[in-house]
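Form 12-C: Joint structure prediction
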Amino acid sequence: MHSVIRSINEVLNGIFKPGAKVHFYGLAESVAARDSKGEKVVPAIVLPDGECFDVYGLADMKNATFYHRLQSSQFGSVQSFGSTKDYEKTSDVSLIVFGKRQVYDQFVLADTVCAALGKMKNVTLQGVDYNLLQVFATEYSGLSCFLNPDYFLFRINYRITSTLNRCTNIEKL
Amino acid sequence: MSLQRITCDGASGTPLVHTCDPCERELGRVRGACLVDGSFDFTALIAALKGSDPSAAQNLFEQAIEDGDIHLISETTGTYDGGSPQTGDGYGDEETRLLGYLHTLNFKDPSYAGNKDFYEQAEKEHWKLIWRTETLLHFVNKPAGIQAIAPVETDLTSAVVWDVTATWKSKEKPEIAPLAHLAKYFEGCWETTP
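Section 2 - Result
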């Protein structure tokens, strides 16, 4: 999962010109935060030591920010041999894209990103959600949309497919 | 002097005993298979499998592999149709008469790249067969013809495998013996070392 997402970020980084001021994060999680204004849920990268940082923390300084959200994983049977049962794991992931309209046209950006994702092994495009209110509501649960019109926000839904079989290494935890 | 009915196949006088097992059920899938040289005699191997000494069966099996009499395809997925009846004209009050069965065993072998020569050669000969289900081995003592194809599909995630079909004609049903003594050979890959 993480290796595929790293590969996606590398591929997407390659579609931008050098110095394009874009930032790519890995898998973000919903983190509950409390400040003087009350409680909120924000998308954040959670480090192994529990430290979190808001993926929008540097957004004002960047022309576009990308991060991924794992929605769910499912398992389906695939052709197996001998007495084993092999499975195919499909993970539904969203790539959230936040950027400045003055720099990028969101539809051109989405098409370009989709074209790059579509060429990747084990990645299947599912769709693009341009509904800003809907995307905002899922990313900032419980908050009303306060996004400045200078910015766009959309998500590209894609699916990662991998096979679990006898050759899958099971490492000790 | 008395009149006695004559029946086919010497079945007359043989007591029929049906065995009822309320607990065990054998689970399907042709999980492994062997192509066996037509001259190989299963008698000793089947006796050893039904015996209590695993090493006797293992020695016979390994020796047969080393001698080139048995070619093991350890992990497969497939089906056996059980034999489709071949019937001929009936006589007297019979509508038809059973002549025998056309048996078809189909299995897929995932070891694709290295086995082109193997299956090309196998198609030129006739083979006795062994295959396994969950806990049993099945032995076919009649020569079977082999056809192996490797179709390629458009799906990017599909696997290219050998799709093998073996057919033979026989009135007899495959002999059955427990797998247990040879179970280890039907897991993973094996090769003969010099």
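Section 3 - Comments
The helical segments of chain A are 2-13, 106-118, 132-139. Residues 106-118 of chain A form the longest helix (13 residues).
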